Fold this sequence. Notes:
The structure holds two protein chains of two kinds.
Chain A: H1 7-12, H2 15-47, H3 61-88, H4 91-122, H5 131-152, H6 156-170, H7 173-183, H8 203-235, H9 240-250
Chain B: H1 5-35, H2 42-46, E1 56-62, E2 68-69, E3 75-82, E4 85-92, E5 104-112, E6 115-124, H3 132-159
Parallel strand pairs in B: 4-6
Antiparallel strand pairs in B: 1-3, 1-5, 2-3, 3-4, 5-6
Amino acid sequence: MSKWIPLWLHKLGSPPTFYRFAGAVRPWAMGLALLAGAIGLYGGLVLAPADYQQGDAYRIIFIHVPSAWMSMFVYAVMGVSGFMALVWRMKLAEVVAMESAPIGAAFTFITLVTGSLWGKPMWGTWWTWDARLTSELVLLFLYLGVIGLYHAFEDRRQGARAASFLAIIGVINVPIVHYSVVWWNTLHQGSTVNVFGHSKMAWDMLWPLLVMTLATKAYYAASLCRRARTDLLALEGGKDWVRQIAEAEATP
Amino acid sequence: MAMNPTRKRRLTIVVVVAIAAALAISLGVYALQQNMNYLFTPSQVQSGQATQYKTFRLGGMVKAGSIQRSKDSLQVTFTVVDAGGAMPVEYTGILPDLFRDNQSVIATGHMDGARFVATEVLAKHDETYMPKELKDAMAKAHADKKIEEEGNGERGAGGG
């Protein structure tokens, strides 16, 4: 295993190195998120033309779809780092998995709320128990379960491992969310954007959506960096490198 | 990061439990796929697949020209069709904005003789998004092509 991983990646796994790395990455990621978010929203809400059948109401797609993608992407990251936390007991993997959960839960919540707001005028209902909506709601409950289980333990590292286990089991729900519109008859429409193949959206509408996808990814990176830094300081509270940082900040 | 025996054991436990859970959930999903019908199409209803349900969802397309609105109430009657069947539907209430000819709809309700009495009508839209100009241009190109083909056909017939 150790032969495949380059040395710098090995070093990145150590808390002090990652603390500095995350500190350097965060402002750039946040800047990219704000810039791409501004461009994407302007492109989507102002520049993009109205849809032929939904008029202006479709514009909520520029929030809804990037959030929905993130709700699944963050879960996948949480599952993979949870797996690493369980097998290799990597402190950083535990931190990444546990600090991803609230961000992913927020994206899932935004997806459900915007979907509901979109559903009322277009479909005629706020909510229906079709496979796509139900599996996305299950995803929210999985996130909340992971957060809850993590905080139910007095020992943080023990809690992180228990919650990682739940996260890994829940990964099976991610493909169910994605393929629910294919496997079942649903009220929710199928996928518009296809990575391999033709997307069913005019380019004038598609590019703001892709820019918004970049913005949400960058926001996740920035938010995760900040949360992981705080968590690492708390976890490694007694260590020398943390004391050095604390002393450097104390002396003006 | 090396694979010492403890890590190997943990890896085995995690992988085995994850595979077992995935298998259990996949079987559950597979079973649901056969039973969990969100809707029935008119031909499915007419072939008796929905008889076990008192209320169910009927899905299909609104037949063009079949919408008849009552003059003094919110009552609407229309026909829902799929590839192999048609079903008259009666509904009283407010319809979603997208309800119109040739729109996919999902109606919840029950059978009353050969009629379906709906308590809720939802519009299902597809995953295609484009500006109106593009849609009109595509519709026009499609119509032109059709006329051209028909024209060719007539000429061909005339020549023969």
